[in-house]
Amino acid sequence: MAAEDFIRSNIVMFSAFAFLALIAIEQVAIRLFRQRGKTPLKDSAMSIALGYLSEPANAATAFITLGALAAVEPYSFATIPVTWGTFILCFVLDDLRFYVHHRLAHRVRWVWAMHVVHHSSENYNLPIALRQSWTKHFTGTMMLKIPLVLVGFDPVMVTFCGVLNATYQFFLHTETIDRMPRWYEAIFNTPSHHRVHHGNNPRYLDANYAGTLIIWDRLFGTFEPECAADPPVYGLVKQLNTLNPVKLLTHEYVGIARDASQRGLRWWQRLAYVFAPPGWSHDGSRETTLSIRTAAGFAPDARRNRAASIMPAE
User: Fold this and answer.
1) Contact call for residues 50 and 132 (beta carbons, < 8 A)
2) pTM metric for this prediction
């Protein structure tokens, strides 16, 4: 198969059925073979429902991103042909784009309002991978794809790389798999690395933003290994304790509107309630992930000091 044909294949349709089959396999492994993991029925059903309904919901607004990519294509600096080599290069660069997007999603409240849906469960299993927001094209971070188009990559290939990256990440959401081989853990994102990302323990907050390649976290000082003495506790710092889909999808947007419309605020404080890190407050009465980590004794630069080592120490 040529690279041109591959990037135009319907991977979404194939994945939709493959995901359900793998969820069933995980269920069998946990319930019949007593493998590690939990899959509560109601929580898993909600995750699957939110995920499959997010496809048409996000497709309805995809014109925002696709239109932007089409609009800038005539202004690209070059035309890069679609080959297997350029596809791999595009995938690596798009994975870096995902790292930036994901880091923003945890550090900017407006983007967090979209991403928080994915972190709202207190469980960690394959259905959680499907628990996605319906508003991803409204955050603005999809515009991070524009530089890839401007340097000359085909917009179809750029879009496909994003879909393929998301497909890989599905397999990360499981407790059933412990660790991968050491060389793999050094380069790629794995279930162990991503369990850390979903943990609300102070040690694990704002860590392991990687999509496919964990090298970005190692390079930029956001890598944190999974610690057996401090197993991840999943969910939010303040749990929602609800399966109401409307609340799951909108609670942070409601919170932003409520906070930014308080009386007596200056204009920059209203903007900060939208774009500052989650937990920011004008009077300092709330906790951010930085203050939580600091209070627990984790120095802000601790991860950066370990980033020089590309191979995992664990």
Assistant:
1) yes
2) 0.93
